[in-house]
Structure formats: structure tokens, C-alpha cells
Recover the amino acids of this structure.
């Protein structure tokens, strides 16, 4: 199949499909980069606030779709099927010939089959983690996806070995702006009464602010936020001056958090505890350490140079299935990028499922704060992660290669 080049004379309608806030950010940046190549380009999207602000027509909002775990997906199946129907109707109505699928593999790989049957050319930006589990999915990618745009160097090697056309573009998080203020300035912005710094170079002598990063999905919040709050309650007793910051994903309602917080008296004291929507990077950078839900947030936290404890909990049945499918030695992306030692030691501690109890989280944080040189060593590992993610400009590189591919026949391995 050969498509016309992107040009003002022959405008393209494209489809962008994501299912999570991180994908919404990546999709918006990609669309803006494509619009610089062709200002007449029109996008219809499954997305959120970022794609909406970028000018895409939203077919389905990601707040309807975001879900994790086999049991949770089954419960949401009618919503997912309705969304798929709406997308395919839009493809017919707007004569869309090119789709960019962004992460969200459980939904997007099924959608890819239907789109391919309609003659749509399919680009996939931000690869499903087929190298981590269910490697058989790569057969679907080879059959339905015209070109992969990957964000980690090892993903390029994986797809090249599997015979899938692929381009490594670097990680889009490198294009996100970061706070100019240092962490001490940010601490005092969120907690004016915190006082002057009592830290020394790369080491914490009296921890003052801890981040609680419970994720962007309602299911994640339900499983993990109560554990994080309970762990902080224990930490407050050991470190009476400790404060907590929670970056709240903007699309999540405050009513989701309040019932979990209401059982703690300190949660109503803004000098001790603050949950702040829409300012992830500023909030996270202000922290001495963060308790982070496994996912893209671990890399975002790494890029802000904040050591972390990675946690994850899911439905018990989903976890048992995942244990059979997952073949990588860690679940936190920050640890997969940093590498795992032959002894199985990860750069950032991981507490998964039953291990992610308030007591275990408390103990892990206390050990980090009390062990001389631990924070400094963790920051050295974070620096290795930061330097391994490629160069900025992922969106521009992906957009330029997509535009080039749209000017000629599909196929060809470009890396």
C-alpha cells in the first residue's frame, strides 16, 4: 500500500490512540510535531487533556478506558468494545488512512487487527512490552503494524531480530520541561514553614519530604494509595518532621482520594501533607525520596534525580497470571533500564504484591535513610538511567520518519 506524502495540497486525517496520561502527553507532542510538517493535518484521537489542547478531535476520553489487570479489564469490556466501535466508525466517516497507536497494548493490538482489515496504515509509537511478557504478541505486531517507533535502544534490537520495521527515536520524556528551581526552593514553596536546608551533598541527614506517587489509574489508586498513606503514618512517628507530597493526575477526581486520607488527622494539615494536581515534576523534585507506583512514573522520577522505592499491587488473580507470563527480572522500568545485578539486586528497591505492605514500605524507606552513602549510590544509578535514554527530540524524529514513510511504500527497516 502506498500513501500520498503529507502535504498541504493533500491533507491527511490521522487517528491517534492512547489510553493513559503518559500516552496522552506523548501523543500531543507527536501531533504538534506532525503539524509543523503539515499544518493542514487533522487528528482524531482517543486521548485526554493534552491531545485536546493540541487540537485533536477527541473520540473517546482516556478517563473512560484507563484500566490495569485481567480482572479489571474484564469488568470494563463493554466500555472498551463501545470505544472500539466508535473509533472504527470515525475511521470510516473521516476516511482515515493512517493510525498511530501509542502504548496501551491490550486495547491497541486488538484495534490494529480491525484497522488493518480496513486498509489503514499503522504506526506504533511506544512499544508494548512484548520483550517482558507474552512474546508471542510480536507475531501480531509483525502482521498488523507497518512500522514501530521505539523509545529504548534494546527495543530496536529486539524488533530487528524479529524482522519488524523499526526506528529508535529516544525517550519522549526527555522533551518534557523540568523545573528550573532546585529541590530546596521547591520544598519551601510547598511547605513555607520547612526552614532552611539541613542536607549535605548527595546525602540526607534529616529527611524532610517524601513523595507518594500512587499512579494514574483508579485501580492503582485503590490498591496502592492506602498502603502509601499507612506507610507515611508509620514514618511520621519515626521522623516527626517528615512531610508528604502527592502529585495528583489531573483527570482523577478529588473524591477518589479523600476517603482514604480522611482517617489520618495529619492529612488535613497543609504544613504536613499536600496533594497537588497537575504539577508532577515540581512536586516530585521537591522530595528527598519517593514511593512510586511502577510504570512511566519511575522514569519521570529518575529524570528528576529523585531516589525511589518502586511498588505495585494488582488483583490477586491477575498477579498469578502475570507471574507466569513475565520473564524480566524486575518490573520497574527504571530498574530494567539500569540493569539488574547477577544476584538479582535492583538499583531501586521493588516491593510487589504482598511485599508492598505499609510495614515493608516503612522498613525499606528507613533503611535507605539510615544507611550511609545509600542516597548517593542511588543517585549514581539514576544518572546511568538518565544517560541511557538517548537524546531529546523523540517527537520530532518520529514525526519526520512518519512523514517520510507516508511518502512511499510501507516496509523497510529504518534504525
Amino acid at each position: 500500500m502506498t500513501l500520498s506524502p503529507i502535504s498541504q495540497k493533500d491533507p491527511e486525517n490521522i487517528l491517534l490512540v492512547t489510553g493513559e496520561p503518559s500516552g496522552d502527553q506523548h501523543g500531543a507532542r507527536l501531533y504538534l510535531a506532525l503539524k509543523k510538517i503539515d499544518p493542514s493535518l487533522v487528528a482524531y484521537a482517543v486521548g485526554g487533556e493534552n491531545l485536546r489542547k493540541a487540537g485533536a478531535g477527541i473520540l473517546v476520553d482516556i478517563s473512560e478506558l484507563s484500566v490495569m489487570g485481567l480482572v479489571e479489564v474484564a469488568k470494563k469490556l463493554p466500555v472498551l468494545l463501545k470505544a472500539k466501535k466508535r473509533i472504527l466508525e470515525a475511521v470510516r466517516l473521516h476516511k482515515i488512512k493512517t493510525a498511530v497507536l501509542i502504548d496501551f497494548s491490550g486495547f491497541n493490538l486488538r484495534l490494529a487487527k480491525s484497522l488493518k482489515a480496513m486498509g489503514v496504515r499503522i504506526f506504533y509509537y511506544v512499544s508494548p512490552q512484548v520483550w517482558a511478557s507474552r512474546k508471542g504478541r510480536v507475531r501480531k505486531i509483525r502482521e498488523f503494524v507497518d512500522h514501530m517507533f521505539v523509545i529504548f535502544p534494546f527495543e530496536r534490537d529486539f524488533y530487528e531480530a524479529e524482522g519488524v520495521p523499526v526506528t529508535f527515536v529516544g525517550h519522549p520524556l526527555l522533551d518534557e520541561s523540568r523545573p528550573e528551581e532546585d529541590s530546596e526552593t521547591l520544598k519551601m514553596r510547598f511547605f513555607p514553614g520547612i526552614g532552611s536546608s539541613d542536607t549535605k551533598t548527595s546525602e540526607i541527614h534529616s529527611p524532610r519530604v517524601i513523595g507518594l506517587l500512587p499512579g494514574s489509574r483508579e485501580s492503582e489508586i485503590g490498591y496502592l494509595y492506602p498502603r502509601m498513606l499507612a506507610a507515611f503514618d508509620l514514618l511520621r512517628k519515626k521522623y516527626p518532621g517528615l512531610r508528604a507530597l502527592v502529585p495528583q493526575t489531573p483527570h482523577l477526581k478529588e473524591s477518589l482520594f479523600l476517603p482514604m486520607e480522611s482517617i489520618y488527622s495529619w492529612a488535613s494539615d497543609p504544613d504536613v501533607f499536600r496533594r497537588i494536581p497537575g504539577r508532577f515534576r515540581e512536586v516530585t523534585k521537591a522530595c528527598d525520596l519517593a514511593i512510586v507506583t511502577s510504570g512511566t512514573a519511575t522514569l519521570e522520577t529518575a529524570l528528576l534525580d529523585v531516589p525511589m522505592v518502586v511498588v505495585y499491587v494488582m488483583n490477586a488473580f491477575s498477579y498469578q497470571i502475570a507471574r507466569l507470563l513475565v520473564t524480566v527480572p524486575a518490573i520497574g522500568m527504571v530498574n530494567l533500564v539500569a540493569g539488574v545485578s547477577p544476584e538479582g539486586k535492583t538499583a531501586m528497591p521493588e516491593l510487589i504484591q504482598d511485599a508492598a505492605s505499609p510495614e515493608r514500605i516503612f522498613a525499606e524507606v528507613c533503611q535507605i535513610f539510615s544507611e550511609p552513602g545509600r542516597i548517593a549510590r542511588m543517585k549514581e544509578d539514576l544518572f546511568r538511567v538518565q544517560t541511557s535514554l538517548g537524546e531529546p527530540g523523540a517527537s520530532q524524529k518520529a514525526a519526520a520518519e512518519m512523514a517520510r514513510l507516508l511518502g512511499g511504500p510501507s516496509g523497510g527497516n529504518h534504525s
